[in-house]
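Table S2 (text version). Query chain:
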Amino acid sequence: MIRVSKVKSWDKLLLLDYKLKSVLPYVNLNQEKLQVIMDVNNYIKDNYMKGYIIWSNFKKIGAYIIDNQELDLLYVEEKYQNKGIEAKILKKIKKKIKRVKIRTRNKQAKDFYINKGYKIDYEDKDIVYLKEE
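Corresponding structure-token output:
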């Protein structure tokens, strides 16, 4: 059974971990990675209360963050990916978001959202914004 709960202050490190796992694989240079780590750390410190924890039974398996009607993070631990959990969460939060933000190089995420009816709204070398068609 999948359920969602509002993030608690003690979940900050978990959110930081998930956000970094969703970003760092798509950053090239080590110098850029250090900047991204600092930026993500500051973002989570200031915005963690906008997050939600995804649970499977009694285990935390992922999280999402909605910031100003923008889905900034939807992460499910690798062991639980490709089981429809991401799709269930997206369906549940669809009315709360106007667009989705992902890394440009994250082809898997881009394909997922396009498959779910989103289209590219804006794209630069680092970030893609998608919105529902």
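Notes on Table S2: The radius of gyration is 14 Å. The chain has one domain: 2-132.
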